[in-house]
Write a structure and sequence with these properties.
Family: Belongs to the polysaccharide monooxygenase AA9 family.
Largest sheet: 6 strands, mixed
Distance between the termini: 59 Å
Number of helices: 2
CATH topology: Coagulation Factor XIII, Chain A, domain 1
Shape: globular
CATH class: Mainly Beta
Structural class: mainly beta
Radius of gyration: 18 Å
CATH architecture: Distorted Sandwich
Number of domains: 1
EC number: 1.14.99.56
Pfam families: AA9
Strand order of the largest sheet: 3-11-10-5-6-12
Keywords: Carbohydrate metabolism, Cellulose degradation, Copper, Disulfide bond, Metal-binding, Monooxygenase, Oxidoreductase, Polysaccharide degradation, Secreted, Signal
Strand content: 25-35%
Number of strands: 12
Bound molecules: 2-acetamido-2-deoxy-beta-D-glucopyranose, copper (II) ion
Organism: Steccherinum ochraceum
Amino acid sequence: MKSFFKLAITLGAFASQVAAHYTFPSLVVGGVTTPQWVNVRKTNNFNTQAPVTDVTSADFRCYDSQTDPTAQTISVAAGSPLGIMSDGTIYHPGVVNVYMAKAPGDVDSFAGDGTVWFKVYQISAVTNGGQSITFPAEGVPGVSFTVPKNLPSGQYLVRMEAIALHVAQTYGGAQFYISCGQVEVTGGGSGTPGPLVAIPGVYTGYEPGILININYPIPKNYTQPGPAVWSG
Ligand SMILES: *[C@@H]1O[C@H](CO)[C@@H](O)[C@H](O)[C@H]1NC(C)=O
Ligand SMILES: [Cu+2]
């Protein structure tokens, strides 16, 4: 009996490592999901689906050091919905942040260096004083948000960040599922997005929303990592 449970646990752990991961290869523009890795820069994990766990690594930005990808830039109107789709579902419990950075010119040659990123969307955790913690992003195939109406027109990187928190109780345990799409915002305004952060640099990995045991004791509150959302 004992060895049966041991085997079951081993198999379960294996399955959750291999089958449960995800990438974000598509955008959703005008209600249409784009083909995989066309408008999104292909990430190192396009085959393995393995997460980034080092928030200080260069790959924490767009996770594309090995693929050297190119992508096509897709137009999206300011004030309209923009979606980001996974290749399955956001299987793990956790939270989501979406960041954007404006390219000085053509986004094809923009790496996203510097303190240039602002947050446009987030899905946090829901707590109620220690009774329960739930994750609205868990199990959904993708996310959708409104491109801020006052966002200046131009070309941008849009970076998806889904943070899986199921084993985040030790440093480096949180799993980051990341990708960067390329969009051209049209019909924009004259807003000044901020606060601006550098990526990597935005996190140390010790934030209470990243280094966290979500199981026990049940967290009384949850602090979403990163700057406030800029909504224009
Ligand atoms: C909950 O709030 C306290 C007090 O502000 C803070 O110290 C703690 O880090 C928060 N916990 C989480 C998981 O965000
Ligand atoms: Cu996983």
